[in-house]
């Protein structure tokens, strides 16, 4: 070869293929058929109330480990409550006719 350019390294393709290339409605329809088939076959899992409670608890534990996130949630809640209190006081002072 007389070409002095090095061979190209394989690049990751950014084009979507298969399931990812489908629109959301097509994905939903295929997933729905899969779920129906699993129920008909008897292999689908349905959470009972205890399993659902435990799954929610695990999710809450995972989220609460992020202190910055929890701080932001608390701050937002405090600001929301403060603004609601101000609005209630303004409505009470004006006779409660404003919305």
Description:
The chain starts with 23 loop residues before the first helix and ends in a 6-residue tail after the last helix. The longest helix is centred in the C-terminal third of the chain and has 27 residues, at 67-93. The model has no long low-confidence stretch (mean pLDDT 84). With 99 residues, the protein is mostly helical. 62% of the residues lie in helices and 0% in strands. It has a domain at 66-93.
Short descriptors:
62% helix; 99 residues; single chain; mainly alpha
Topology:
Layout: H1 24-41, H2 49-64, H3 67-93
Query: Helix and strand string, N-terminal first?
Result: HHH
Strand content: under 5%
User: Helix count?
Assistant: 3
Low-confidence stretches: none
Secondary structure: number of strands: 0
Largest sheet: none
Mean model confidence by pLDDT: 84
Give me a quick take on this structure.
The protein has helices at residues 24-41, 49-64, 67-93.
């Amino acid at each position: 070869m007389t070409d002095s350019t090095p061979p190209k390294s394989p690049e990751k393709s950014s084009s979507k293929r298969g399931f990812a290339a489908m629109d959301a409605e097509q994905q939903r329809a295929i997933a729905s058929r899969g779920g129906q088939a699993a129920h008909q076959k008897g292999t689908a899992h349905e959470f009972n109330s205890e399993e659902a409670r435990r799954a929610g608890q695990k999710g809450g534990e995972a989220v609460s480990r992020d202190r910055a996130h929890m701080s932001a949630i608390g701050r937002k809640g405090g600001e929301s409550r403060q603004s609601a209190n101000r609005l209630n006081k303004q409505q009470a002072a004006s006779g409660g006719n404003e919305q």
